[in-house]
Write a structure and sequence with these properties.
The chain is of the alpha+beta class. 20% of the residues lie in helices and 44% in strands.
Length: 149
Amino acid sequence: MTLSLNKKDIADLLPHREPMLLIDELKDIKKLHSATAIMNVKKDGFYVQGHFPGQPVMPGVFIVEAFGQAAAALTAHGIDKKTYDNKLVFLMSVEKARFRNPVIPDCILELKIEAVRSHGRVWKYKGEAFVSEKKMADAQWSATIVDRK
């Protein structure tokens, strides 16, 4: 099993496309358990245009979105392809999201995620976001696998 996915591999698993495909790499994959997503946070990213002009900051909701994309890619990569064919992973809830430090572009945001448990089509995850080993944010969230319409 592949221990690392590049952006093209991730795009093959997720419905997200530019500019909303936020994660650039998924590495250190432990099947259906954990992984680290890499997001290159750039000054010209659409999500910072107009978000504190002159002092751009990555919006916290995009950190949560990147967590969700990383978890969806981890799950889609780990389950049987036939099971995931024509399915989507939708975010259901976000709990205990904390934004500890502002994420300032140009940096590499590392998202360490873990699948905590699954029950049928519902999955629970937790994650921590780091820039240069400094914790920037953490959250817990739930997602479900649904039929693609």
